[in-house]
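To the wet lab folks,

You asked to see what we're planning to order before we commit. Fair enough. Below is the target structure as tokens, and below that is the sequence we designed to fit it. If anything looks off to you, flag it before the synthesis order goes out.
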């Protein structure tokens, strides 16, 4: 399958050419975001007059959004602040949830992001944490607050700084391990492994390196049928999203470029491919240069949400009625159409 290549200028021009397809969304005094409608197909998910709102502000770097269904709240991380916060849907309040969220005692000269990054739930409802500063995948029981290190090494060597993760139906955990948490990245004296890897932890605890060739693996997600794995590559010189076809055992074949994001950098668009989520119908929500893009499984662009700054990650919540975006120093809530299930 050839890579989908999208020219940002053509893409935005095409979206803006549709009558009523783009506009500032939010309060008149403080525009929140611009919703570019790039295809009429977007309307089944997001109404043209949808009101995007800011639900949290003053964050050093917002990441890792995760909706917790049983608690009716959103968790999101702030890796440099070493904090996970909680937004309560009923009260609208934001409060600290986990501090420190990652490693408690790190040297800022060596560790740039001591806190948690990506978050997920396992099938028992426990919180899984990509612990950037602790260089591990941790597990937290939300009822007892008992925390444990699930994995921190591959073949005896410590990970760099686990960034994002996805839990498969069989309980396998796919995760990425770029060097972003380390102050000197690839040249950090703390580094023990020679690659920035994509890994799979099988249900029996076995760890496999499934791709060690990517420069900056970042966001990661599976298709609804779990026959494809998507991985964002936040490489400024070659930004892209990779696709891997998986066998029956969840192991990938050779990766292919699913989306070439290099043309989207035209004009200095902020951000890189970062976090992503896949809806139950296969729609992908992906960080790209310029904002957060919604695409079909064939990489057809449906819409772009832009704020003028990078948007790091996304999460579906409220039983598919909302899309949450961690957008630089704030968190946004995008209402989705009733009856649409993400």
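Sequence we intend to order:
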């Amino acid at each position: 399958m050839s890579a989908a290549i999208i020219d940002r200028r053509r893409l935005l021009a095409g979206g803006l050419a549709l009558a009523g397809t783009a506009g500032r969304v939010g309060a008149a005094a403080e525009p929140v975001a611009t919703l570019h409608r790039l295809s009429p197909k977007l309307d089944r998910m997001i109404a043209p007059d949808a009101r995007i709102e800011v639900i949290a502000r003053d964050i050093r770097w917002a990441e890792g959004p995760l909706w917790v269904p049983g608690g009716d709240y959103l968790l999101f991380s702030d890796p440099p602040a070493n904090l996970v916060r909680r937004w309560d849907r009923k009260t609208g309040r934001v409060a600290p949830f986990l501090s420190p969220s990652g490693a408690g005692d790190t040297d800022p000269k060596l560790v740039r992001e001591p806190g948690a990054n990506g978050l997920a739930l396992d099938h028992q409802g426990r919180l899984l944490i990509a612990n950037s500063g602790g260089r591990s995948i941790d597990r937290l029981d939300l009822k007892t607050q008992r925390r444990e290190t699930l994995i921190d090494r591959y073949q005896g060597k410590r990970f760099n700084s686990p960034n994002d993760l996805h839990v498969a139906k069989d309980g396998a955990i796919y995760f990425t391990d770029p060097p972003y948490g380390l102050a000197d990245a690839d040249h950090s004296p703390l580094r023990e492994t020679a690659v920035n890897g994509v890994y799979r932890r099988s249900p029996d605890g076995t760890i496999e390196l499934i791709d060690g060739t990517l420069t900056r693996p970042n966001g990661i997600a599976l298709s609804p049928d779990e026959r494809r794995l998507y991985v964002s590559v936040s490489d400024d010189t070659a930004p892209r999203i990779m696709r891997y076809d998986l066998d029956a055992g969840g192991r990938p074949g050779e990766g292919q470029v699913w989306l070439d994001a290099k043309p989207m950098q035209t004009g200095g668009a902020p951000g890189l491919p970062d976090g992503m989520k896949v809806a139950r119908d296969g729609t992908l929500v992906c960080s790209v240069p310029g904002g957060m893009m919604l695409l079909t499984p064939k990489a057809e662009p449906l819409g772009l949400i832009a704020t003028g700054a990078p948007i790091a990650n996304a999460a579906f919540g409220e039983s598919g009625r909302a899309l949450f975006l961690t957008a630089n120093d704030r968190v946004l809530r995008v209402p989705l159409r009733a009856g649409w299930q993400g």
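Structural context that might help your review: Confidence is low (pLDDT under 50) at residues 5-29. The first strand starts at residue 4 and ends at 5.

Thanks,
Computational group
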